[in-house]
Amino acid sequence: MIDIILIKILFAHLIGDFFLQPTSWVKDKEAKKLKSDKLYLHICIHIFLIFAVFFSFDVWLLALVIGLVHFLIDVSKLYLQTKKNARWLFFIDQLLHVLAIVFIWNAFFQKHIDFNFLSNKNIWLVIFSGLFLTMPSSVMIRVIINKWIPITQTDNQQSLQNAGKYIGVLERLLIFMFILTNHFEAVGFLLAAKSIFRFGDLTDAHDLKLTEYVLIGTLLSFGVAMVVAMVTQVLIA
Q1: How far is Cα 212 from Cα 196, in angstroms, rounded to an integer?
Q2: Do 147 and 200 contact (CB within 8 A), yes or no?
C-alpha cells in the first residue's frame, strides 16, 4: 500500500504545478528564465505547500530540499525547451519531478515502494493487451482496410494530422477498460456517441465509399478491442 507521506508530497506537487501556477506565470518563466520573479514565487509556493500538507514547520528541511530540486528541474527545462521539444519536455519534466519526490521521500523517511505486484502475471497480461491495442492494432487495421481507402479520404486536408489513429487507440483502450470492469453498456454508449459525431460528416460528404470505409474501420477497431478484452478477462480469471 502506498505511504500517506508520499501521497501528501505528491498532492502538494499537483496543487503547486497545476492549480497554483497560472499560464501567465509559465509564459513569464519561459520568456525571462532566471530573471523571472514568477519562477521564484512558484518555488516558494511549493515549499509552503509542504508545510501546509503536513500542518507543521518541522519538515522545513524536506520542504527546502523539494523546493531546491524543483527549482533545478524547472530551470533545466526552461533552458532546454524549444518549440519542437516543448511537448515532450513537459512530460519529461513531470516525470523527473515525481521521481525526485519518490527519491527524497525514500531518503527522508527510509520508505520504499513494494514492487512485488510486478511479479503478478495478470498485471503483465493486462499491460501487454493494452499495448497491443495501441499502435500494433492501428497498423493491423490499417493494413486490412488500406485497399479500400477512398480518394476523398486521402485528399482531405481538413482533418487533424493522425487524429484518426489516436481516436482509434483511445476508443480501443476505453473499450478494453470497460469490458475488464464489466461495464459492457459503456461500450454501446461509446459506439453510439461516435456514430452521432460521424453522422454529420458522412451525410455532408455524400460518399458511399467513405461511409463504408469508416464503418469497416470502426467495427474492426471495436471488434479487436472487444476480443482482446474478453480473452484477457478469461486468462486473468
Answers
A1: 16
A2: no
* Cβ neighbours of residue 144 closer than 8 Å, sequence gap 6 or more: 220
- Whether pTM > 0.70 for this model: the answer is yes
- The per-residue b/e assignment along 2-35, b for 16 or more CB within 10 angstroms, e otherwise, is eeebbebbbebbebbbeeebeeebeebbeeeeee
Q: What's the pLDDT tens digit per position in 126-153?
A: 999 999 999 999 999 989 988 777 765 5
- The C-alpha cell of 176 is what? 478494453
Q: How many CA atoms lie within 13 A of 203 on its CB side?
A: 6
- DSSP H or E segment with residue 227: helix 208-236
Query: Which residues lie closer than 8 Å to 57 by C-beta, 6 or more apart?
Result: 51
